[in-house]
Amino acid sequence: MVAAGELAMAHGLEALTLRRVAEVLGVFPGLVSHYFPVAEDLVAAAFGHVTEAERAQVEALVAGAVTPLAGMRALIDTLLSEEQDGVGLLWLDAWNAARRRPALHDEVARQMAGWHGLAVGLIERGRHAGAFRVADPEATATVLLAAIDGLSMQAALRPGLDHPVVRRWVIATAERELGLAPGALHPPGALHPPSA
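Above: the chain's sequence. Below: its structure in token form.
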């Protein structure tokens, strides 16, 4: 699955065929089709492999954060880093292709639910600690993830829009949605939001 995930990251989901994965692995296509008789299942599994790894990385950072505020910073900083642009573009590819590929549609929905659950858990942790003032963690998680997804795509694809500007917009949205004072999500010791 690693080879298929790397191929998807490098060339997009359309490049994932049984034959192409077999070429990368240096095996006969029949071996790949033994495990994935339907190419659509291979595409869904490769997407799931890449996005599960991304979420596991963020889950570890959030779980290791001393406070919910630090956890939210870790989530935002990781997902909006330039290093994540490739995964973000793979998501964009999957959202588009999922309209025509049922197996991929189901995997995209499963991965989105996983991210939503991570965000809801973090928000509820912050609410119970008295750090976040949120009436509906489910809705708040949806708004935050939509802001991160939409604006990270803008930063990856739109010339002239850089990651620090997008990060500032997402932080402002998160602070508002979480009932935080402006500047609360900036790193400790920061006196003001980072400039563009």
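The longest helix spans residues 102-128.
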